[in-house]
């Protein structure tokens, strides 16, 4: 049985790994193998696949440090960088948060999206409204398939990305992966308002 953060009462961590695309599948299998060999109370899992050159692992501090060392020793990761986070996101240690999410979503009615909404759990569009609460719950503990989600878009000739949210982490990942694409980060309310005005002007000019 997987223990939760509160049950473990140990330090947790997340670490970003610099990798090569050809190693991603092997890294995933290696982490599963490492996790199965850890002593009781320790856990490490693949939290994010952010791009062809970056992945993130999450779990207890000792397990994350150990896995980082093994992956670097086996030349699957060039280096590792500890992330300043408050919890071990996107791994089984977050199950209490997933349980709270499930309870909170029970009384919410969802409609099937009218445009494609790609979930980072499966890297494919949501097909029906009944999937939404399950996917929202699962994304709390599941690996974030960001690289595959973007690959899904690229396979459909999408080359313009509007990135909404604080900081520019995702925008920078996209620019490094696809330098010829149009990447527009909207990091503040002012950015969003300005972009909205630009769209209105563009629509008026097409009338």
TrEMBL record:
Location of the Malonyl-CoA:ACP transacylase (MAT) domain: 10-192
A biological process term (GO) from this entry: fatty acid biosynthetic process
InterPro entries registered for this protein in UniProt: Ac_transferase_dom_sf (IPR001227), Acyl_transferase_dom (IPR014043), Acyl_Trfase/lysoPLipase (IPR016035), Mal-CoA-ACP_Trans/PKS_FabD (IPR050858)
Q: Which SMART domains match?
A: PKS_AT
Enumerate the catalysed reactions.
Answer: holo-[ACP] + malonyl-CoA = malonyl-[ACP] + CoA
Named from the GO MF annotations, one term is:
[acyl-carrier-protein] S-malonyltransferase activity
Q: What class of enzyme is it?
A: transferase
Question: GO CC annotation: what is one?
Answer: mitochondrion
Tell me the SUPFAM superfamilies matching this sequence: FabD/lysophospholipase-like (SSF52151)
Q: Cite the EC number.
A: 2.3.1.39
Q: What are the UniProt keywords, alphabetically?
A: Acyltransferase, Transferase
Q: Which PANTHER family match?
A: MALONYL-COA-ACYL CARRIER PROTEIN TRANSACYLASE, MITOCHONDRIAL
Record protein name field = [acyl-carrier-protein] S-malonyltransferase
């Amino acid at each position: 049985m997987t223990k939760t953060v509160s049950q473990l009462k140990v330090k947790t961590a997340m670490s970003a790994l610099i990798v090569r695309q050809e190693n991603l599948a092997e890294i995933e299998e290696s982490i599963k193998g490492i996790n199965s060999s850890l002593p009781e109370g320790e856990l490490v899992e693949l939290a994010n696949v952010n791009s062809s050159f970056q992945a993130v692992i999450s779990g207890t501090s000792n397990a994350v440090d150990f896995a980082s060392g093994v992956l670097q020793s086996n030349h699957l990761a060039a280096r590792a960088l500890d992330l300043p986070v408050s919890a071990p996101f996107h791994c089984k240690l977050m199950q209490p948060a997933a349980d709270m999410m499930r309870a909170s979503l029970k009384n919410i009615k969802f409609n099937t999206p009218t445009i494609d909404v790609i979930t980072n759990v499966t890297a494919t569009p949501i097909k029906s409204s009944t999937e939404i609460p399950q996917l929202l719950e699962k994304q709390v503990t599941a690996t974030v398939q960001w690289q595959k989600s973007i690959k899904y878009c690229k396979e459909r000739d999408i080359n313009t990305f509007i990135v909404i949210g604080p900081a520019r982490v995702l925008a920078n990942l996209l620019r490094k992966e696809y330098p010829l694409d149009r990447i527009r980060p909207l990091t503040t309310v002012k950015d969003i308002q300005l972009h909205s005005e630009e769209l209105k002007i563009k629509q008026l000019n097409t009338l």
